[in-house]
Design goal:
The chain is mainly alpha-helical. 52% of the residues lie in helices and 3% in strands. The protein is built from six helices and two strands. The longest helix has 17 residues. The two termini are 21 Å apart.
């Protein structure tokens, strides 16, 4: 499902391409996650707002299914600022991965953290 990634109203063209990709994956025996989710805001007002958005995603994941929440964490560096003027979100996503509230909620929801794939 694309709902947690793009919202309830998936554009018809995207829905069509997605449906075709799911059929192709099924034919090839490729397992897909039930949900793929992330915070889609380019700019986030505060760390608390970012954390709340990811905690809300945890509450919306289907139970007993493989899903994916992805982030693009990065340390705050001059290189990041040069690459992405809105890089604060990436810095906060790195902070989120270390946040004890986030880690507690992952455990509470039975989410297994996969550090890389």
């Amino acid at each position: 499902s694309l709902e947690l990634y793009v919202g309830e109203h998936v554009p018809p063209a995207l829905a069509s391409v997605h449906a075709e990709a799911v059929v192709a994956a099924d034919l090839l025996g490729v397992a897909l996650p039930a949900q793929v989710a992330s915070n889609q805001q380019a700019v986030v007002g505060s760390y608390a707002e970012l954390r709340r958005s990811y905690l809300d995603l945890l509450d919306r994941l289907p139970e007993d299914a493989v899903s994916e929440i992805f982030l693009h964490p990065a340390p705050e560096t001059p290189a990041l600022r040069a690459l992405d003027p809105n890089g604060q979100k990436r810095v906060w996503e790195l902070e989120l991965l270390r946040d004890p509230v986030w880690r507690r909620e992952l455990t509470r929801h039975g989410v297994e953290l996969v550090p890389h794939w």
